[in-house]
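Morning. Coffee machine broken again, so started the prediction first thing and wrote up yesterday's gels while waiting. Chain of 368 residues, entered below exactly as on the submission form.
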Amino acid sequence: MRKVAVVGAGKIGSTVVDLLVGSGAYEAVLIDQSAEALAEFAGRTNVTTAAMAIDESGALTDKLAGCFAVVNCAPYHLTTAVARAAKAAGAHYLDLTEDVAASRIVRELAKDSKTAFIPQCGLAPGFITIAAWDLIKHFDQLHDVRLRVGALPRYPSNALNYNLTWSTDGVINEYCEPCEAIVNGKLRETPALEECEEFALDGVTYEAFNTSGGLGTLCHTLDGQVRNLNYKTIRYPGHAAIMKALLNDLNLRNRRDVFKDILENSVPATMQDVVIVFVTVSGMKKGHLMQETYVNKVYAQQIGGEVKSAIQITTAGAICAVLDMLTDGSIPSSGFIRQEDIPLHAFLANRFGRYYAPDVLPLRAAAE
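Came back before lunch.
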């Protein structure tokens, strides 16, 4: 079995451990600064735990020694600390970060590395890029590439039309930081929460607006090759307007700790969610202007006898699939690896990537 360190024992990190260890191919070292968060894994077969400060680079490097790979599920502000420790320990590195600045540092760390550095391996960035790239390859000339992703409650019941489904820090960060885009052929930054649009899917109306980090490396890959490229987060109508009032008019963007406390004590979490993936590409094919679309919905379902939310499944499933492909040699084992370098068909054929397959139906018990 491969020994893999999983940093962060939150909703996603715990699901990563469940998937990896449940496959029988991996043993996990789960690292978190909270002994309480690690307690539920005490005595688990093929799981060892370590309670320690993640930003102590020397101690973390020592703990990562002998690991085949490091799967970083820690909050985005710890990304670079974990990446540096992984490099010092000689381990492959994978993360879920949507933070643009942190991803740039990871790319620099990968330049002379003998191991693989694969950031942004979650849902968005991550799978959304893999799906988009598969469509992009069908075109002779690109015009517009639009990526839309949302993790939504199936039964919204508050003014925000939202429930907490993943990292509160991550949600706030993507609502506040500048967004990369290509507009009329020019690489530029756009403000988060702006350019709100509405669309309907399966009879349900949604809104989508700019958020940071979802494109991964696509802006740089497609610079000079596409007219328009953008990423937007999907929510139910009205969400963006309320968030803009809270973050801008009440200045909570500059008091993120206060905003986090408000959200986590006022907005309940839910396991009854749905993840929507919506990619549209238009351009020229054999002399004709054409459009292709990839649409997918993933619901909460049981894994190992426990109901996991759709965002847990899609995020953890994606990074586990990439790790599995690294293990079996399907992707390069050194340097910086982009999500564009991962074939969609190979990803969906993987035992962890199969959770994105459209024939996996929602668990009735989780939806009712």
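The chain has a mean pLDDT of 94. Going to sketch it on the whiteboard this afternoon.
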